[in-house]
Specification:
By secondary structure, the chain is α/β, with parallel strands linked by helices. Helix content is 39%, strand content 15%. The protein contains nine helices and eight strands. Strands 1-2-4-3-5-6-7-8 form an eight-stranded mixed sheet, with helices on both faces. β1 and β2 (36-42) form a beta hairpin. It is globular and about 45 Å long.
Amino acid sequence: MVNGLVNRVLFRPPHCEDGYDLPTPIIKLNTSRGNTISAIYLRRSAKTALTLLYSHENGEDLNTSYRYLRKLSSCLNVNVMAYDYSGYGESTGVPSELNCYADITAVYEYLTKEKKIPPEHIILYGRSLGSGPSCYLAEEAACNGHHLAGLVLHAAFASIYRIVMPDPGFTVIGDMFPNIDRIKCVKCPVFIAHGEADEIIPFKHAKELLAATPNRSKTMFFTRKQMSHNVLEGTIEADLMEAINDFMDYHVLARRLWMKPAVAKLHRLK
């Protein structure tokens, strides 16, 4: 009963009566929980080494997040795979924690099995609510010996109950999306971005997640005092893109290997 109430507050899919209005083909994927979800794949370049698997906020869908997805693809020079959770957009079913896990798993299997993209070339990007399924998949990948390229957590939370109640220092029974526990098992490089002016998820959640990451030498942190939860005003968006690029250049092996020919050519021209 409690989780049912939390679900109604947590999941707020935008109205999508008229369907998608996107210049990109919609991909339909079946999940292990019997739902059919919608996804899109933005192909940047055949020479691009990395693909971003993007999980959106609770009040977004593919329609409303499309501009940001294009921004990510162009600024980071990556392919982008994004999807709508069950009950969002044209995806069937109802939103729930377990459905979110099945949703992102279906997308990951599509990338690795259908498109033959190795895990080492996949970066998970979870924004707000999307941090839950992203941390879940990052932990699952680590436990199954899959070496992901990286994990980006943007405005993430430690867990759902910790947003609205004092942190008891442990995950209580019934809590949802326990990112703080899962990130301890993550083996890939981690990038955490969180605004000090976030009015929805307190900034302390980012600091707790940062402290829980197992490999601080492969973890980067980004913040701005004026950065809020939903809006990236002024130069903040450009600064964030630059920081993620730096993260990939320094810590993501597939990006570093992809850069080698260009660096070698630059040295020959000197």
